[in-house]
Design a protein that fits this description.
The protein is α+β, with helices and mostly antiparallel strands. It folds into four domains: 172 residues, no CATH class; 245 residues, Ribonuclease Z/Hydroxyacylglutathione hydrolase-like (Metallo-beta-lactamase, Chain A, 4-Layer Sandwich), CATH 3.60.15.10; 128 residues, Sandwich (Jelly Rolls), CATH 2.60.120.10; 98 residues, Sandwich (Jelly Rolls). The protein contains 24 helices and 42 strands. Helix 3 packs antiparallel against helix 9 and helix 11 runs antiparallel to helix 12. It is globular, with a radius of gyration of 27 Å.
């Protein structure tokens, strides 16, 4: 909890980021990262009513919204019966209003017919506009917000004046006297429960559900809602909570095991972690309706200030259609629109001999639905749809919360005992869950994963093998017959924790791909530990060069791997782009390349897999004398990493930075979008570099789109 300062220093740093100033006009919060309302709810004056937007509304390196005001606005309006005062620049005001439109009221224009497949003309789209208008009632922006703009970089409210100074920080004055200076740049600090860390890396089941957060956005005690469905040993994240990747890593679950997202709607307690997940390693697939996706893109385009056309390049979008099944990792999903304040989808899932339903946010109280039918908010057809909720599913994941937006838990507690016994209640604070009931409360933590007794499909092992192949960086260049060959040449092997897998100096006889667990590449010249994990590979150098093994490789945990014998491996890669990649990696890989990447200020944003990929595309380049590497307004032909030497960065004729060993020279996003340089880079003496061609840089970013914004300097 934030500790409020005395009058001499009225600024408190909030645990999740942002600042709170105790002023004569009440609390003023500067910046609002996700879930900071959980930091302020229990303070003496509760949630602030005055918010100042930070310099940047979105942090690309963390993948989070720094102006997440949905829940404070709701809290002040519905609980305090007050407006929320927002202070910002004119450009920020327009962006914020676009984002809040999607979250508070839903899209201005709805085309639900686009969510019905042309092959199913018998399915009638629901009239969501009626339902959204019912929840909106007479509420308008002017009822919930007071939007105030800085004029000449100053704004006054009663006895308080806030001014933007020359450093883009905020000077705060009480009665004309300066009381505080608040940073304009907001840092975000992850804060979440992790439960129990597994002693060994997690191995996903055939079918299971892991709760990432059982509660809602107003609960300061528990993680906010989100869960993972495990199908065929792969993960699908439903409404990723904020910091879910860090939570997975802290729980000893490799985030790469989750390669898909189902986004149900665009409230902050359901979509706040979606871009975070998208910006991770590799490209994820996002499943939702076109309506929800359009809302998501509008919301985050306004917050990030990036065009929709750029955001859609960061992930693969797979539209789902209401009433038409879609198959994800072997499971049959069928989606439906729920009764909520913005467009929201729930779904049923069938897999082998098991079935599951997720209500999503939904008002399931029959009394409310009857009232809506009587008042012609919903049609008879829609009422029948709600009445025929698939309670027959073997497990029911049902949300609950505060009416009228959510299903009251009292209603769920009136269900027949047989239904209650298989119903897991989700999206509810523990304190609000009934004590005497056969309903089950969703339980957070990887150790509390709900496992389904499932009949294994005949294709289980083949699906596993192809899943490993799908995650390797060379898959796109392989023809289908190579995928078939891959299945026939690999062998499954297990190694115990501490076991020596490869001994330095011995002949190379196998190529290794890790399915689960971690290995350590032991080389005394490496800075820190070089650890490889799920879907990473090793052992290729000795096979391609015929030279002895160059390092010891030890199992840091229990390891399951797929191996390929030398002759089969050489035959498999011969003539492929993968062979070219590996040979470049063999030529470039050394303790120097690895140590440079590890020492880079951007290493915190890259996985070992991404560093290995970069190693394979580095080309040594030595320059003498002085010269210009990058010129403002000119297209990038290469990206560079400094090995030795210094370079100067200038913008508009003014020197703004000095870069040195490990620093990147270039802008990955501009290379990705084929935009010219926004700065000039020069050197005055001999310089040693690694160069990355524009083609290789684009391929790298296409495979790891989330890094484009992270590998950029803010000069």
């Amino acid at each position: 909890m934030a500790k409020l300062k005395n009058k001499k220093n009225p600024v408190a740093t909030l645990p999740r980021g942002g600042y709170l100033v105790q002023s004569p006009e009440g609390y003023i919060q500067f910046g609002s990262p996700p879930e900071t309302i959980k930091d302020t709810m229990n303070l003496p004056e509760s949630v602030p009513q005055i918010f100042v937007l930070p310099r940047k509304l979105f942090n690309w390196q963390k993948g989070i919204n720094l102006s997440d005001l949905e829940f404070p606005v709701y809290y002040n309006y519905f609980i305090k019966k007050k407006k929320t005062t927002i202070i910002c620049t004119r450009s920020q005001a327009g962006r914020l209003m676009l984002a809040l439109q999607e979250a508070l009221f839903g899209p201005k224009e709805l085309y639900i017919a686009q969510d019905i497949h042309s092959s199913s003309p018998e399915i009638s789209p629901p009239n969501l506009r009626n339902e959204l208008n019912y929840y909106r009632g007479k509420m308008r922006f002017r009822d919930v917000l007071s939007l105030n703009l800085f004029k000449n970089n100053r704004f006054s409210l009663g006895e308080v004046t806030i001014a933007i100074n020359d450093n883009n920080d905020f000077d705060v004055f009480f009665g004309g006297k300066q009381a505080a200076c608040v940073p304009g740049s907001i840092e975000y600090k992850a804060r979440y429960n992790i439960g129990q860390r597994l002693p060994e890396p997690y191995r996903p089941p055939l079918f299971g559900v892991t709760c990432l957060g059982p509660s809602h956005g107003f609960d300061p005690e528990e993680n906010t809602s989100g869960f993972i469905i495990w199908l065929n040993h792969s993960g699908i994240m439903i409404d990723p909570p904020i910091d879910s990747t860090e939570w997975l890593e802290a729980s000893n679950v490799n985030p790469k095991l989750v390669d898909s997202i189902i986004l149900t709607h665009c409230h902050a307690d359901h979509d706040a972690g979606t871009l975070q997940k998208i910006l991770e390693e590799g490209k994820v697939t996002v499943y939702t309706t076109k309506t929800v996706m359009r809302s998501f893109l509008k919301k985050y385009s306004s917050l990030t200030n990036e065009p929709v056309s750029y955001l859609v390049r960061l992930f693969d979008f797979r539209p789902i259609y209401i009433g038409n099944p879609i198959y994800i990792h072997g499971g049959e999903f069928s989606f439906f629109y729920t009764l909520h304040s913005i467009p929201t989808i729930g779904f049923t899932l069938k897999f082998q001999n098991q079935s599951f339903v997720y209500s999503s946010d939904h008002q399931a109280d029959p009394a409310v639905q009857k009232e809506l039918l009587a008042n012609r908010v919903i049609t008879r057809e829609r009422y029948e749809e709600f009445s025929n909720f698939p309670w027959e599913s073997k497990v029911v994941y049902h949300e609950s919360g505060i009416p009228p937006l959510h299903t009251p838990v009292d209603y769920l507690n009136t269900l027949p005992e047989k239904l209650k016994e298989k119903t897991v209640v989700y999206h509810i604070a523990k304190k609000d869950f009934p004590k005497d009931t056969s309903l089950r409360l969703a339980t957070f933590g990887i150790e509390n994963t709900l496992y389904f007794k499932t009949k294994a499909p005949s294709y289980e092992i083949t699906y596993l093998i192809l899943g490993v192949l799908k995650h390797l960086d060379f898959i796109d260049s392989l023809p289908m017959e190579k995928a078939q060959e891959f299945v026939t040449i690999i062998e499954a092997e297990k190694f115990s924790k501490g076991e020596l897998i490869i001994k330095k100096g011995t002949p190379g006889n196998k190529f290794y791909i890790i399915y689960s667990g971690n290995v350590v590449i032991n080389d005394e010249q490496f800075i820190g530990k070089k650890i490889f994990g799920t879907y990473e590979y090793f052992g290729e150098i000795a096979l391609l060069t015929g030279k002895p093994r160059t390092a010891d490789v030890t199992a840091e945990t229990d390891v399951r791997a797929y191996t390929i014998e030398k002759d089969k491996f050489l035959s498999f890669v011969y003539g492929t782009d993968f062979e070219k990649t590996l040979r470049r990696l063999v030529a470039n890989r050394s303790s120097d390349t690895w140590n440079i990447l590890v020492s880079s200020p951007f290493s915190q944003f890259m996985t070992s897999y991404q560093k290995t990929w970069l190693e394979s595309i580095l080309v040594p380049r030595d320059l003498k004398g002085k010269g210009t590497l990058v010129a403002v307004g000119k297209p990038f032909t290469e990206i560079y990493i400094i090995r030795r030497g210094l370079v100067k960065v200038s913008k508009q004729g003014r020197e703004v930075a000095t870069l040195r060993r490990g620093d990147f020279i270039g802008d990955m996003q501009r290379v990705h979008l084929n935009k010219p340089a926004a700065f000039t880079v020069t050197y005055n003496r001999s310089l040693s570099l690694f160069a990355i061609s524009k083609t290789d840089a684009v391929d790298f970013i296409e495979g790891n789109p989330g890094l484009a914004m992270k590998l950029s300097y803010d000069f």
